[in-house]
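Morning run. Coffee first, then this:
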Amino acid sequence: MSGYSYTTINMAPGEPTRVGVSIYPDEQTRVRYYPAKNDAHAFISVDYGTAHVHIGTTSQTPVTDAHVTFARQLLDAAAAFLAHCEQQSTHQPATDTAA
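And here it is:
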């Protein structure tokens, strides 16, 4: 498995600047959940090479229905991605990585 990532910045006159980050993971990529403890905020961390993406709540803002909706959308998207990966992995020939 070989991964890569890239970042794009799109700027146009009269338009808001858009930043995109794409991560196509490899075996070194890590995703972790850090629960809230002692008034800290909970967050998910995606670590890929020297890139770190954090998704979380803030300790200064109460959790709202919008946070819950976002978390459910994230869960639904991750579940669909997992199902796709599992389905694809069962339909590919096995590769022997042992030498």
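DSSP finds one helix and five strands in the chain. Good start to the day.
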